[in-house]
Amino acid sequence: MLNIALFGPPGAGKGTQSSRLVEKYNLTYISTGDILREEIKEGTVLGMKAKDVIEKGGLASDEIIVQIIEAKIKRNPYANGFLFDGFPRTIVQAYILEGMLFKMNTRLTCMLSLEVPKKELMKRLHERGKSSGRADDTEEVIQNRLKEYDEKTYPVAKFYKDKGIYNGINGIGTLDDVFKRLDAAVQKSLEDRWVNLILFGYPGSGKGTQARMLAERYNLHYISTGKILRQEIKDNTDIGKLAKPYMEKGAIVPDEYAIKLIERKMEENHKSNGFIFKGFPRTMVQAYILDGMLHKVGSTITSVFELKISATEAVKRLVDRSKTDQKRPYDMQIETIISRLEEYEQRTLMAKDFYDKKHLLHVVDGQGTEEEVLKRITDRFDNTILRNPR
């Protein structure tokens, strides 16, 4: 998802610019101020709770804010992303937003802060009060709101500066000029983010071949737990010795071995554009582990592809491979091949479903030449994922 928080003092022009960003990037707009005013107008329980505080220029309680944002998110389960206007306003709310987005397997892409001198803000707010008749645009309330911003909201900037996603934007100029600055910052944030892919499919579905070609095409680092473990075994490392019995049977290696190796590869290649994972995760537990590892470095899974072939075709391909120099120890016995297919159906399909429920899964026909399958994947990726970044 592309998730943007638009930051800035009252009168900075957030509402106007939000509509433009929402339209260009097909985002769901969440303005806590607009939602609260609607709640107040309709006389809801939440509205009545917030009414006195809002009309005095104060901030609604975090409990109220969380309830209205969660309700908005639930009403838009297939959103391409969200633009948050007026949230977060405090450090506490910044942490709340982190937790909400993590629950959705995503994160904030960038914080855009419109910077406008106080004198200009006062002028804009007075003019808006005269034209709109808003009760919260009186002189006393304006002063209080700006004070609230300085004391409580401005420190949030440091929170996002420390995360490296804060962008200060000059808010003076025409609407077009300001939008161009905001848009440039969004584009830069998209260029800087990692793209992380997972390939699922029966053993023999062609995941390794496609992963290598995708890694080259999108400048990603290819992480194959099987390949890494085979090298560990060849080098006779401690992990290699422990993993060898599992690898010979084509069984799932204990998670602690895979975690160490994957974290090492991610650390060694932290300057890459992202990663493509093959052979991990193979279980639901490993899916949670991978989410945790990526969250630790401020990233998430971008998309998941399943290469769809029949079990019969998978057996045929593995038997054929056993007759080549690309054979694996677990290709040599038909019983082992069948056991691996059963394990995929019983355990790995649960991990695949985990990502399907997050709306990250794309099923691609795995039949055909390597180039034909690659084109199906890249067409789907280029036309949906890159244009509508998750």
Structure commentary:
With 390 residues, the protein is of the alpha/beta class. It has two domains: 4-192, Rossmann fold (3-Layer(aba) Sandwich); 195-385, P-loop containing nucleotide triphosphate hydrolases (Rossmann fold), CATH 3.40.50.300. Helices cover 58% and strands 13% of the residues. A five-stranded parallel β-sheet has the order 2-3-1-4-5. α6 (118-132) packs across α7 and α14 packs across α16. The chain is elongated. The mean pLDDT is 87.
Count of DSSP E strands? 10
Summed up, the domain count is 2
- CATH architect. name of the largest domain: 3-Layer(aba) Sandwich
Name the CATH superfamily classification of the largest domain.
P-loop containing nucleotide triphosphate hydrolases
**Main sheet overview:** 5 strands, parallel
**The CATH class of the largest domain:** Alpha Beta
How many helices in DSSP terms?
17
Low-confidence stretches: none
Q: What is the rounded distance between the termini? A: 3 Å
SS content category: alpha/beta
Give helix % range: 55-70%
Q: Give the neighbour order of strands across the main sheet.
A: 2-3-1-4-5
Instruction: Tell me the fraction of residues in β-strands, as a range.
Output: 5-15%
What integer is the average pLDDT? 87
H-E string: EHEHHHEHEHHHEHEHEHHHEHEHHEH
Global outline: elongated
Quick overview of this protein structure:
This protein is of the alpha/beta class and 390 residues long. It is built from 17 helices and ten strands.
